[in-house]
Amino acid sequence: MTRRRLDPTRVRIILLLLGVLALASSCGWNLWDNPMTTVRPRSDFGQLIDGLFMLISWTTLVIFIAVEGALLYACWRFRDRPGAPIPRQIHGHTPLELSWTVAFALVLLVIGIPTIRIIFQTQEAPAATALNVDVLGHQWWWEFKYPGLNISTANELHLPVDQMVAFHLHGPDVIHSFWIPQLGGKRDVVPHRVNRITLTPQVPGEYPGQCAEYCGTSHANMRFRVIVHPKAEFEQWVKAQLAPPVQPTDALAQQGLDIFGKSACVGCHTITGISAGQIGPNLTHFASRHTFAGSLLPITPENLVSWVENPDHMKPGALMPNLGMTSDQAKALAAYLLTLK
Ligand code: CUA
Description:
Layout: H1 8-26, H2 44-77, H3 94-121, E1 131-138, E2 141-146, E3 151-154, E4 156-160, E5 165-170, E6 176-180, E7 184-189, E8 195-199, E9 205-210, E10 223-229, H4 231-242, H5 251-262, H6 265-268, E11 270-271, E12 275-276, E13 291-292, E14 297-298, H7 301-309, H8 311-314, H9 327-337
Parallel strand pairs: 1-5, 4-10
Antiparallel strand pairs: 1-2, 2-3, 5-8, 6-7, 9-10, 11-12, 13-14
Helix pairs in contact: 2-3, 5-9, 7-9
Bound molecules: dinuclear copper ion (CUA).
Dinuclear copper ion binds near residues 137, 176, 214 and 215.
């Protein structure tokens, strides 16, 4: 019995189709629904970049089709056939040379002029009415300070819709990059200089942000959430953030407060009226957030206990030390932190 040999052309076609299928299923069709998408802009900044992206994409698609079409036509029209003459040689054809030089200069103008215009538009100085937010990129979490409102929070950025926001980007340690894909950006956060990015969110909702510059062990875990509120809702949030922390009423949380006050926690964290540490996140309204540790972990009693017991295990490279607390102490501390609404 003879074995049939596989046709190499057929094998190649099957492999190619499988490759296309794998690519399509992994990323291709999910651009719109993906929360990290840049093709669904939700701010003026995002709209500008998206408009430019679309202009360049369509222009280059038309050029691609024209050039590949001409190439395929030439391959077919002048293919070698028995007895076919050598095609007419057009080397040094001045009108042709001129026409494609001018055509590509025009293409450069079509792409170049809007690009330069949008570079300037996205660098504009903020209006006097803009909400100022100081963004501090730390290894590996984000600190947001609202100087005009006297609010300091971490990993969760709250903004009012339809109001210009001026982000002032500070790098206390290494270079990071501030990026909220649906709102536009990104812009580097560089030590010893203050970069700025100004944008106006246009649609209320929740948008993920991510550090976009490799900055060490937990770079990938340096995320944040952006919540764009309707005006009145934002004002409520501001009011809640300005309120002093509530005194715990249950015994376990009270025990947690005692542990907090007597341990190294106070050296790094601020809780209004209790401590004034500046190294780690401000915890005054910790439980009003949904996530912690660079927005890596949802705020749950279990996650808090695991975090206090061994931060590095939860977020590799975390600068918060293991304070050697017992499981009961960690539980009490978690109960206290959860009262900080
Ligand atoms: Cu910070 Cu990457």
